[in-house]
């Protein structure tokens, strides 16, 4: 196997500096409790590093540092141009260490190195550069209401921001959160997912090197419930929480926010309909169905996990889909040839296997996969690419987010029928339509209740394009100018002119 040898690893020096510490007030410190936890390589189950286990006491310290940096530090006095320059410098620093980040991401999360290298890392860099440009473009307005008064608005930062992120795109999610918050002049505490803390910690090191003032970016690694994540969402001196993760966790975070009515933005799960009409370019749609569900091992909130096929093409489509799914090269993510890696953890692997069992019990037909691979891969947290046909939209595997390489295939007879079925789900993050008929495409694009709709494509992203959910997929839009709304608040100032 062409797995990169340990001696060649660009991230070796970083990994050898274990246990990794917390970044609080510009200093790297142990957890108050002295506790650490292990982060594992999901391809092998081996320990990659030990990491400080932050808890409430550390969150308290980090919030104090962030508050002090917000109220009294050089950050608030800095020009927006200088803030933007720091963001550009951070983007340059990530780019200079791109290989190291790609390796860290693949080792910690399991994803194929080609994806880390060509998707996660470049998109993180793009996000920082995009928001670096925004730092100098945040404006208020003047409104002519009454000649006796002059009114102007100020768009100000929200203040101290808590950001809780998941493990599926560890560096990219950190970028989506940090970049707009910093461009707007906030200070922040980032809580990375316990499964994948490493790339965020390396990002923290680079942020210190490029000169972000102390206390502006604080990073507290640790767990969620009854621990660091919960303490952050409950904290009375945190002005806003931005969260990406499970819908159930989002609801808990919202409840925890009521103490001080902090602002909350939530990017939660999905169960996207991926709809293929008989008049579509079938080969392109098969490819789209494959990336739609198997990209990142299916651990994608906008995964096309419900594939709706028009009845007349079902047999042909399924034959092609099965062949492609079975042809995916599954293996250690560090192998350049790997197309699908392990799930992030044993817990996720087991959760996915229980959904596969549920699908079989409910009477769906297993087209391929449905088991853990054996041999070399048995020690990692792998699940074979799995396709179920004959799925009914009421089944558990059609309604709940599986977050794994498990596709549910349904069929339909008419546009009206598929529009109704597509929307019969609690989530509304994304959807896709494959057809050559532009009327049908735009009609469905307007009918699908979701924050993103792809037409004849899937999983296309850009830092300038808003992303977020309808219904229980959350609220608030990240990316684009819309994230500026999340991290600023408006003040109107009245001046007597009479
Ligand atoms: P999770 O939502 O529990 O974890 C995400 C982050 O929230 C982590 O940093 C975690 O430490 C933190 N967290 C957990 N409980 C918390 C609490 N009570 N208060 C504050 N922070 C808390 O997701 P988990 O358990 O890792 O995965 C379970 C399922 O969630 C997955 O199978 C998938 O369906 C969904 N998920 C969705 C994601 C998305 O992008 N929409 C990302 C990750 C998971
Ligand atoms: Mg959880």
Q: How would you explain this protein's 3D organization?
A:
The chain has 498 residues and is an alpha/beta fold. The protein has 2 domains: 286 residues, Aldehyde Dehydrogenase, Chain A, domain 1 (3-Layer(aba) Sandwich), CATH 3.40.605.10; 190 residues, Aldehyde Dehydrogenase, Chain A, domain 2, CATH 3.40.309.10. 38% of the residues lie in helices and 20% in strands. The chain has 16 helices and 21 strands. Helix 3 packs across helix 7, helix 4 packs across helix 5 and helix 10 crosses helix 11. The longest helix has 22 residues. The protein is globular, with a radius of gyration of 23 Å. The chain starts with 11 loop residues before the first helix and ends with a strand. Bound molecules: 1,4-dihydronicotinamide adenine dinucleotide and magnesium ion (MG). 1,4-dihydronicotinamide adenine dinucleotide (NAI) binds next to helix 8, helix 9 and helix 12.
